[in-house]
Mannan endo-1,4-beta-mannosidase protein
Amino acid sequence: MAKKQLVCALLWVLALIGSIIEHGGAASDFVKADGTSFAVNGESFYPNGFNAYWLMSKGSKPSEMDKVSRALRQASSYGMTVVRTWAFKDGGYRPLQSSPGVYNEDMFKGLDFVISEAKKYGLRLILSLVNNFKGKRQYVEWAMQRGENLTSEDDFYTNYLVKNFYKNHLKTILLRNNTKTGVVYKDDPSIMAWELMNEGRCKSDLSGRTMQAWIEEMAGYVKAIDSEHLLEVGLEGFFGGLDQDQEAIRYDSFASSRNVGSDFISNNQILGIDFATILLYPNLWIPHADDATQLSFLRDWIDSHSKAADEILRKPLLVTEFGKTSRFAGCNGVDKVAFYRTAYAVIYKLIWARSACAGGLFWQLLLPGMENLSDGYEIILSDCPSIANIISRHSRLISSLNGPSLRGMTSTYQ
């Protein structure tokens, strides 16, 4: 009997190991939302990193794949832990998806490579699945080519055929078997979260009801396929129409006045949405304000949304994009340096206070020689010593707050 029990136990262990290998790691390796915080294996995890939308495109070209490796290795050496990037390129030149359901395998292998390199360097990914800008329009144009009578890019949210095109993309991404790792995307804990849309807006319905219904539908669809990964909407932080009669608008008068058909509170309260996001671009949103006013706006914007996430949403908040162009010497301008110093100080203060604000990702990281992708917001660490030092110091501080097994996870590559 003892031998039989031992054999059964060994078979169970082997089955468990096989399951872990098949799914790319135990389910507990996934980043989870724990109240207003993030956790991995029950240990605190504070996301800290950057945006690099270009990773898949570069990773799909043999002559430029090294840029992906160099960027991720460099970020890891600075102590960063999360990168947000695109898992879409709809139509146009070298697309991921050239027409509904038709994918460029070379481009997809570029995304496979990005995920495998992120894992190699101890980074986790937030993968955005469609763009409010151009992406919506492309999906609508595809439907029109199939005979649909559509008049607005916002038909993206309501047309049955368009929604099915998008759901097919979701399913294709989630069920993709990574050619580099052999792990299906939905089973890969190197992916921290899915993002439904980058900066989703619906100006044709400022009540917010159209986007609310779309998010509810798509969140349910994603979670039915993948219950392990976190999911977020991709919002900028505007409160919008659904909250106009609620006390929530008291949190930020600017956010409630910029109605673009999204709604920070209602959209993030949807079942299946695991954490809230905001973006931060004072020079775009209040362009005529002086530097001091913009820094004050920065503090108020993060503070007010963190408070709303704490008191109403009861979910973590992540600043998924923040950045500034400089009026002076590019990334070495005193205004840009002050912006980064203040942004990181506010984020760290809120993390230290155990508020809902759990971290931030700057826009955007480039490497030397990639100036053709310059948008004025880029950070090339070797060219931006002051900001590089600010990022390095912040990374060390954040790392000290992570759970023991999550500290120094990138030290091998320094």
Summary: The chain has a mean pLDDT of 91. The first strand starts at residue 31 and ends at 34. Residues 291-313 form the longest helix (23 residues).
